[in-house]
Amino acid sequence: MKLLEFVNLEVVESVKNKDLLTWLDYTSMEVKQLLELATNLKKLAKNNVHPPLLAGKTVGLIFEKHSTRTRISFEVGINQLGGHAMYMHARDLQIGRGEPISDTGKVLSGYMDGIMIRAHSHKMVEELAEAASIPVINGLTDLFHPCQALADVLTIHEVKGYLAGLKLAYVGDGNNVAHSLVIACAHLGIDVSIATPKGFEIDSTILNKAQKLAASNGSSILATNNPIESVSGADVIYTDVWTSMGQEEETAARLDAFKEYQINEDLVKHAKTDYLFLHCLPAHREEEVATSIIDGPHSVVFEQAENRLHAQKAILASILS
Ligand code: CP
Ligand code: NVA
Predict the structure, then answer these.
(1) Atom 2 of ligand 2 has which residue's CA nearest to it?
(2) Active-site residue identified among 173, 280, 310, 312
């Protein structure tokens, strides 16, 4: 960690120039240090102190899919750090007409200092990272959403004051958000119980890796098809949409498959009385979550959305400064 005297701030030196495609490529210590940096950057920002750690740097933001939080929090975060953010929709780039992603990565490496990408295919993002000589940050793929997960654990830590030993229940689709969340929790010693309908479980290879990581940090990751079992005694309840971007043609089948997995007043009775409710947003009220829960006193979804900004500033400052 390097000391930046002017604000007494330490960036995570060991991740300098590293890609962030999944937290599986990071150590538990690095995740903890990034979390600490995010907390410090947030405190500074609340006092209108914006250390110019990205001064003179340009970061490209490539999107193949819609976004509110990711696009805006990255643009604002890069601006606050004194850098320049350049938004690019994939359909406007030549990749939209078939130029290989590897050529795009090589070309952009000659112009800018880092790339954040939101893409359909994780494999495509791996190809981009392989070809580019500048760091690539995953802003969501079909497999992972690592920036979201850092904001999630930052939010839990802020409210609960600690992480190791908490129980988090994830109820819903075993998707990109779930994958990154279980890995982040495994790094931080949070016990996780994931309840999904049959056929919508999280990827078994990712589950195995997360379970090994959790064991090394004194916690466990359990997978079940029973939402009540998952939520029982939970400190944190998390859900995401049942139909992710790109799966729209499956909407009707998914509404049917997930109907017993809604986070509602009956289900949350099984959690601790001071449970927190998290959702990465966007949410569908009365589908995956009852309106009374997401808009109720246990919900921290808007703090969580704000924390995308602070978590990503820690990532950007450490990888790119
Ligand atoms: N949670 C999240 O990534 O939101 P956006 O799709 O709005 O970026
Ligand atoms: N699982 C959702 C997350 C959106 C932020 C999706 O991929 O659409």
Answers:
(1) 244
(2) 280
162 and 57 together in one domain: no
Instruction: For residue range 169-189, list pLDDT tens digits in order.
Output: 999 999 999 999 999 999 999
**Domain residue limits at 107:** 13-144+308-320
Q: Where are the alpha helices (DSSP H) in the chain?
A: 28-46, 69-80, 101-109, 122-131, 146-160, 176-188, 204-216, 227-231, 251-257, 265-268, 291-294, 301-320
Q: Which tokens in the block code for residue 208? A: 């195995």
Distance 252 CA to ligand 2 centre (A): 17
Summarised one tens digit per residue, pLDDT across range 240-259 is 999 999 999 999 999 999 99
3-state secondary structure of 35: helix
Catalytic residue, chosen from 148, 211, 304, 312, is 148
Under 8 Å between Cβ of 185 and 220: no
Q: How far apart are CA 281 and CA 308, in angstroms?
A: 11
- Residue 59 maps to a domain: yes
Residues 293 and 315 in one domain: no
**What is the token pair recorded at 179?**
């994958």
Looking at the structure, do residues 163 and 243 belong to the same domain, yes or no?
Answer: yes
- Residues 156, 112, single domain; the answer is no
157 with 139, same domain: the answer is: no
Give the residue, out of 140, 179, 304, with the most ligand 2 atoms within 8 A of its beta carbon, to mutate for a pocket test: 140
